[in-house]
């Protein structure tokens, strides 16, 4: 039996990961500051999970956790996530996304943690229109969010011999429903706004990005806990066929909803990220199959919206910024 610490465990990805891992025979610790009124999510999860309502910036408390529990593995999800959230206060977001992450890793080294999984982002690739980028491609971070992620990846690579297993997961843009829904993610937001017939202004309609369902991420991390070998690695998490432009996403949604409320703004570019990602490594090295399609996610979100109150899906708790 392993003792696994998950930071940000009650968040969008973390809560689904907890649901997946609670079926396994491990002791699970969850650390989350619960800024989005998400402490209530714990009631939907196993009462065997040990919850701590604390921030990763609380170094004193972190030291106590590592001292009191013999932690074998750490899955580091906690962060100020996304460009808009980080752009609000770049200095503070860097303190959390880089400085606090660095302190967690250093504690892992001190207390002999065997495996460290860091959830990074494909946003690190920034802008690359010429070809599909892979794990070895040049990084071009365009925002405080991706700059912090890239710098922490560099820190891990610099210290890669200090922990037995280190994995850096560059996630495609996530979609799908969770115990802590998010409607500031492209696909989730588009479906919600179109469903409620709100005017949806789309910028950079022909800009490419890859997409992955939150369940696929949770399932891959579960596989990684078992199958990863000694050493450090970077893995893009997604599926090559799931690279889409925003216009292609709208076309997909149009199969299920009326998209007459969508307006493509061709003059203004809000987000310069534009890249397609190759995901061969996750398939060839881990024989991992991405199961959930864009169509599945769109239908899942529509089903959720039908059962939810409008004020709930437009609440502040559903956005990071």
Structural class: alpha/beta
Q: Give the H and E element order.
A: EHEEHEHHEEHEEHEEHEEHEEHHH
Q: State the CATH class of the largest domain.
A: Alpha Beta
Poorly predicted residue ranges: none
- The number of strands is 14
How many helices in DSSP terms?
11
Describe the oligomeric state of these chains in a short phrase: single chain
Task: Profile the largest sheet.
Answer: 7 strands, parallel
As a whole number of angstroms, the C-alpha radius of gyration is 19 Å
Instruction: Please list the strands of the largest sheet in the order they lie side by side.
Output: 3-2-1-4-5-7-11
What fraction, in percent, of the residue positions are helical? 25-40%
CATH architecture of the largest domain: 3-Layer(aba) Sandwich
| Overall 3D form | globular
CATH topology of the largest domain: Rossmann fold
CATH homology superfamily of the largest domain: NAD(P)-binding Rossmann-like Domain
Task: Name the average pLDDT.
Answer: 95
Span of the ends, CA to CA: 38 Å
| Portion in beta strands | 15-25%
Q: How many domain modules?
A: 2
Based on the model shown, name its key terms.
single chain; 321 residues; alpha/beta; Rossmann fold; UDP-galactose 4-epimerase, domain 1; 2 domains; seven-stranded parallel beta sheet; three-stranded mixed beta sheet; 11 helices; 36% helix
Which SSEs are present, and which pair or pack?
Layout: E1 3-7, H1 12-21, E2 27-31, E3 50-52, H2 59-68, E4 73-76, H3 83-88, H4 90-110, E5 115-121, E6 127-133, H5 144-158, E7 165-171, E8 173-175, H6 186-195, E9 200-203, E10 208-213, H7 214-227, E11 231-237, E12 243-245, H8 246-253, E13 262-265, E14 274-277, H9 280-284, H10 294-307, H11 310-313
Helix pairs in contact: 1-7, 2-4, 4-5, 6-8, 6-10
């Amino acid at each position: 039996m392993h003792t696994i610490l998950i930071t940000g465990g009650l968040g969008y990805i973390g809560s689904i990961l907890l649901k997946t891992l609670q079926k396994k025979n491990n002791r699970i610790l969850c650390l989350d500051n619960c800024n989005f009124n998400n402490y209530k999510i714990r009631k939907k999860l196993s009462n065997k999970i040990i919850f701590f309502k604390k921030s990763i910036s609380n170094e004193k408390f972190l030291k106590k956790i590592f001292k009191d529990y013999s932690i074998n593995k750490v899955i580091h999800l906690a962060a100020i996530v996304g460009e808009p959230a980080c752009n609000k206060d770049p200095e503070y977001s860097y303190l959390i996304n880089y400085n606090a992450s660095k302190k967690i890793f250093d504690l892992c080294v001190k207390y002999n943690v065997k495996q460290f999984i860091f959830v990074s982002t494909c946003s690190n690739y920034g802008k690359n229109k010429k070809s599909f980028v892979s794990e070895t491609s040049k990084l071009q971070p365009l925002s405080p969010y991706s700059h912090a992620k890239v710098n922490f990846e560099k820190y891990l690579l610099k210290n890669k011999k200090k922990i037995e297993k280190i994995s850096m997961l560059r996630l495609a843009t996530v979609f799908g429903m969770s115990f802590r829904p998010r409607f500031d993610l492209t696909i989730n937001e588009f479906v919600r706004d179109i469903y409620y017939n709100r005017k949806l202004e789309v910028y950079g309609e022909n800009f490419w990005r890859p997409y992955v369902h939150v369940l696929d991420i949770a399932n891959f991390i579960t596989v990684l806990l078992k199958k990863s070998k000694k050493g450090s690695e970077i893995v893009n998490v997604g599926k090559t066929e799931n690279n889409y432009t925003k216009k292609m996403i709208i076309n997909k949604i149009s199969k299920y909803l009326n998209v007459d409320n969508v307006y493509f703004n061709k003059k203004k570019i809000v987000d310069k990220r534009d890249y397609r990602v190759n995901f061969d490594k996750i398939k060839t090295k881990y024989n991992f199959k991405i199961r959930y399609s864009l169509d599945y996610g769109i239908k899942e979100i529509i089903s959720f919206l039908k059962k939810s109150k409008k004020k709930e899906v437009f609440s502040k708790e559903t956005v990071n910024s």
